[in-house]
Design brief:
single chain; 217 residues; alpha/beta; Rossmann fold; six-stranded parallel sheet; two-stranded parallel ribbon; 7 helices; elongated
Length: 217
């Protein structure tokens, strides 16, 4: 569909003004290497002027991971999971788990804005940040999953997960993927569809626990 000329010219005007503002600024801060790359792509040469300044995230205590073997692999998803935070991704994943009867369960520490089968997905509701480690341990969570379908400029949840020493899987997007690539216990999912994502999660679990016998039947 063609955009109307007035809309296109308006976008160009706003973009030019943003570039002018950035050039006049005393300091330009980016919160991740991903956002720094996006800035450089939008305004060539601006990346060299920008300063990388990650946010401070209050560290949480390291969690005790469940001992193997377990009846189910329990995946933890933290936060209020709306559409852009990956609600549809989790819905598709839950359907794949049901269809294959895979030994995987999902615990959403927070809320999920999508209908999912109760035997597979549990929502714990609102939580306090300091309570995250004990909630993770209560439900026997082995791996954390960030299903966000948007490239984050900085992921507070990802850094909280990192501080708890919880293995982390995410989609190949934004600052969350930058962080996961730097982890020995991180994994970038190659697919977003339910069956493909389930295979990636099980592959990650086998990487973490080479003696694991979890397979999709």
């Amino acid at each position: 569909m063609d955009l109307c000329p007035s809309l296109v010219s308006g976008q160009l005007y706003v973009g030019a003004k943003c570039g002018e503002l950035l050039r006049c600024a005393d300091e330009v801060r980016c919160f991740s290497t991903s956002s720094l790359a996006l800035l450089e792509r939008a305004y060539p040469g601006m990346g060299a002027r920008a300063k990388l300044c990650p946010h401070y995230v209050k560290p949480l205590r390291e969690v005790s991971l469940p001992k193997k073997p377990q009846k189910y692999l329990t995946i933890g998803v933290i936060g209020s999971i709306s559409h852009h935070k990956g609600a549809g991704v989790l819905e598709s994943l839950a359907e794949a788990i049901c269809q294959t009867d895979a030994p995987v369960r999902i615990v959403v520490i927070g809320n999920l804005d999508a209908p999912c089968p109760a035997p597979v997905v549990k929502e714990t509701g609102p939580y306090a940040q300091d309570d995250l480690p004990k909630i993770v341990e209560k439900y026997g969570i082995s791996i954390a999953f960030l299903p966000s379908i948007c490239p984050e400029t900085f992921s507070f949840v990802a850094h909280e997960i990192l501080s708890m020493k919880l293995p982390l899987i995410c989609l190949d997007l934004g600052a969350q993927a930058d962080l996961v690539r730097s982890l020995d216990t991180g994994y970038i999912a190659k697919r977003q569809d339910g069956p493909g994502l389930l295979e990636d999660i099980l592959a990650f679990d086998r990487f973490l626990h080479p003696l694991s016998l979890k397979v999709i039947s």
